Amino acid sequence: MVEIGKRDLIGFGKLDMNNFLANRSYCCVDADAFRQTPALVHKYYMQIIDHFQSGRISPIRPVKAFDAVSSYDAFRHMQPGQHIGRICLSIHQPGKQAEYDAVVLDRPESLDLSGSACYLLVGGLGGLGRAISTWMIIMEPEFDISVSKCGSGPNDAQFIHELESMKAFGEAKQPIKGILQMSMVLNDEGFSKMTPEQWNTATRPKVHGTWNLNNASISAELDLDFFVLFSSLSGIIGQPGQANYASANTFLDSFIQYRVNLGLPASTIDIGAVGDVGFISQDRELLQKMTSTGFMALKEQEVLDGLLVAMTRKPTKNKECRSRSSQFVDYNNFVLGLGSTVPLDSPTNRSVSRRDRRMAIYHNNGGATADSMTSNACLKTYIAGAKADVSLFSKQMEPRHSLPVRLARGYSRFS
Fold it and tell me: pTM score, two decimals?
């Protein structure tokens, strides 16, 4: 008999000794000890594979198989700990094409910008827009059109001259094959004090501008390769004083569903703070304030990589997801920068998403870091001691340090 779990050992389980007659033996396998002798473990694994391939050993029976899309049911079946044999997930079934809720994306296709086409960049004179324009020009399209709301910024004339010198700026003499909607205007104010003018200032460039681009491209019967809308994490997690800006970005995330249902290319990128280019990078005080709260700053290359995926993404109609954890998946929406450099359960984390229930998984991922030791040091010390001496589980803990109490406190943060 081989024991591969610790539940019965920790719980002081007992066995009838007569089961070990006829030269039977009992052995416990502690997977945690594998880390101490990796070379020896590798040797034994290779022997097991050799025995299996030669037919000297066979899989443990019985085997309870679940489809890959039913992994939730597999865990529920395993949870009581009363099953016999093995539980496995069947990824491929002979002669049957399984339907999966998740979409497995292939490696992004290389972006082929045609030299006989034009590409329209709306609002592309900011720091991020300039980086994207330069990135596209390096791919040698013959024309690359950049349009701003006014083009009257202190550095706009110099950048336009640079584009003209590269023969990448001018009137559209070739068919437009791609559109990047990058316009944005910030007019922050508390919602209770926000005026209609402030609301419209932030929403019109994205809402009205996107509708105008959509209607114009349809009226002109443009055969677009991509229609990418630049959205923001403000529409996902929100930011104080940016109700107008968040509303404009949630519109973009919804608008692509309208275009995709028409069979037209469309995708959005919800971009977080970019640390080396763009609006936030030019305000060092604001950037430092955001990063000090745990906000993760993106790199320019990360944005370009995400844009490449969005530009090469083929229109994929959304569908309801059969997973119990989610009922809808938008395959044409990409989120960049949703994370934190400081664990969400750390007292030093002051991000606005800290108490968002949707961020609960990040609490789990960050719970093992040193920064969270101050809040649960007693429980961690107890568990570490129990690994060395399982008899500690038979001793009574103080009520305020008990496991149920600690779990209840953790769950209360999301109530």
Answer: 0.58
